[in-house]
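[recover] target loaded
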């Protein structure tokens, strides 16, 4: 048990599932319902029903900084396209950037980006829960 959890300092209320799910993502303009950037590659890890960690090498995409250009009202979330293994079709979910860390050590992705899923439709929620069930079985 971690010391944060022992002292009641753990903020997470949902279980996280360790994973490595390849995704593509782009900055999305919710007000105009259109992409602001092209898609780039990333990977979702530590996934829960309400958020995940996005690993990427791209904090700046076509002039849009994922954290600094992040609209607190949720009008510029990331649109994440998931193609989980074993699934034939892809699906999308929107994520709001909460934080990021840069890693200097050699690893595939140089940034960890904390996301909260936003504007999740019932169909997206079911796809997300299906993904989490498959992760808990493996």
């Amino acid at each position: 048990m971690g010391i944060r959890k022992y002292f009641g300092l753990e903020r997470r209320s949902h279980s996280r599932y360790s994973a490595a799910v390849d995704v593509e993502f782009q900055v999305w303009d919710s007000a105009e319902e259109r992409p602001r950037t092209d898609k780039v590659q990333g990977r979702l890890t530590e996934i829960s029903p309400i958020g995940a960690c996005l690993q990427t090498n791209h904090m700046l995409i076509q002039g849009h900084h994922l954290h600094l250009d992040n609209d607190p009202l949720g009008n510029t979330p990331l649109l994440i396209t998931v193609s989980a293994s074993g699934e034939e079709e892809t699906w999308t979910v929107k994520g709001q950037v909460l934080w990021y860390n840069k890693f200097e050590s050699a690893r595939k992705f140089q940034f960890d980006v904390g996301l909260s899923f936003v504007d999740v439709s019932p169909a997206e929620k079911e796809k997300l829960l299906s993904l989490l069930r498959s992760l808990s079985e493996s």
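[recover] notes: Residues 1-10 have pLDDT under 50 and may be disordered.
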